[in-house]
Fold:
Amino acid sequence: MPLQLACADFTFPLLPHDQVLKLIAMLGFTGVDIGLFERRSHLWPSHELAAPEQSGAALQTRLAEQGLAAADIFLQLDPNFAPYAVNQPDAARRAHVRETFVRTLDYAAAAGAQHVTILPGILFAEEEADASWQRALEELVWRVAAAQQRALVLGVEPHYGSLAPDPVTVAALVAAVPGLTLTLDYTHFTRQGIPDAAVEPLLRLASHFHVRGARPGRLQSSFQDNTIDYARVLAAMQAGGYAGWLALEYVWSEWGGMNECDTLSETIRFRDELRRLLSS
Structure:
């Protein structure tokens, strides 16, 4: 099956959500990555998950009207990584995060999605790193089982600032949690100066993939300044039998200077480049 292209709805935060979906369809994408980000996306968990099955079904209807499918539901409960990390030391907060995750699974199933993405957790300064790590493993094992009960695939996105910031640690995390997969984004490694070759072994662990430009020192860059060799990435994907979505994930945000890219133009440029590479 040929790889399919998706686009994140949070690429265009200044448009109403219905117009975002129309734009993504007009650009020729068949899938949408839905950002379920509290206080920083169109759809907030606190709103959508009050009645998850109803909200998810409504989302599926809106997507179908544009000929789109939900490629991924990406859950983040706070703009800051710490307050609602999966491995939050505070037991009451962890319980809230678990409950919200279960509601997210119900939402994703109702929306027709087959994939959910979360963040893997962080190392908390007030405790030993091993304690943060072990708590994250316990929480991720529980989440994989909950997702599998609903026939959903769970991916974590290893990111700059997480407890798995480099490829070796990422591989160790996945190995420690049977059934866990990756929503893989090279840009978090590229920013740190980690070469493509060091990230490439993680492709075999990936169930979803983010595409945008990046270069050392910058998490997001233009197509022109990008240093990731996506021709090599796609060749490795195809050789390894990757069957997930390729999701364009430009972000328009003040954080990290990510509002310096024209997200529409850069999305189009990468869309065309991916199409060219996939047809060659």
Observations:
- The CA atoms of residues 216 and 279 lie 29 Å apart.
- The first helix runs from residue 17 to 26.
- The radius of gyration is 18 Å.
- The mean pLDDT is 97.
